[in-house]
Amino acid sequence: VHQACLEAASYRYKFGHDVPVDVIAKRMANVNQVYTQKAQMRPLAVTMLFIGYDDEKGPLLYKVEPSGFFAGYRAIAVGKKENDTNNRLNTLINERLKSKEADAQDSAAGDDSDSVDKDLYQNIKDVVTMLDKVYDSKLKETDIEIAYVSKTEPSVRILSESEISDYIERIHDDEE
């Protein structure tokens, strides 16, 4: 984290604006790669997620692995049951993209901020529901962290434990 902060500060000093998410992700991947190749250096054993909003590219999410590999994603999970969660996230995203394409063909309406808020709520609810199904035990707000960016909120927003708890309670109320 300290190295990423130094890189971001250096970029801002050199170019006069904040570092784009893809640039900092690539730079940190390069640093990780160097650490895997030098015998006198211990490899960094941390997976990093970089999230941000670009006016041209929209929301960006990059995962940087300790080996130096990095890639962009629409949504990604890291940690316990990561593979199963990511498979379900991909399925969820593909379903959403298909439904949005169908909706776009049905109507040519513009982005309404109210519909954007509803989409965000539904996306978070769907992700929490999916995570609740992935975990063998009952999901608690301390088990997960959720962050997002959007056009209306371009700075990173991390949901608090109480907000996650509200989503979990709503899901359990809907099931009953």
UniProtKB/TrEMBL annotation:
Keywords: Hydrolase, Proteasome. Its EC number is 3.4.25.1. It is an enzyme of class 3 (hydrolase). This is Proteasome subunit YC7alpha/Y8 (Protease yscE subunit 7). The lineage of its organism: Eukaryota, Fungi, Fungi incertae sedis, Zoopagomycota, Kickxellomycotina.
